[in-house]
Amino acid sequence: MKNLLFLILFLNGALNCFGQHGIEFQFEIQPINNELSIFKDSTIYDVRGVILNTSDTDLYFLSESCNGLAYYIKSNSENVENYVTLNCNASWPEKIMIKPGSQYLFNTNIRMKKIVDDINLDLKLFLLIPSTDVKGKSIFDVQKENIFYTLDLKGKNIKI
User: Fold this and answer.
1) Residue 28 to residue 48: CA distance in whole angstroms
2) Which domain does 51 fall in, by range?
3) pTM
């Protein structure tokens, strides 16, 4: 009963605190076209994402040991897809924490099947309870056992 009460209070606090007002997602996109790049395809773009914790509470969320948040990025266009360059045999859950007023930076790539004029990327963020222990577990197990809330963070539409 105590645990249920704690979960309800924690869930209520998280819903109030971590709406779009407590967490922001921003990104920038740049074509990868320098001669040092392994990509010679002009349809591949580098995405630099930033998660900002604008709340007054520590933020904990799930990431992956292989490719980080790459699989959690979604586009508003069917002509844009994730372009993951590193394929792993296994990926383990990682618990990321962002202090209030701090940010988390990450990089990934997208590929445009057809060039678009503007793009919007959204980030699905799986929040974790602060006491969640991810060591020795699979990503699926962490999601199944400990995820209490999923946020779909909306990025702003930008021109390419």
Assistant:
1) 5
2) 2-159
3) 0.79
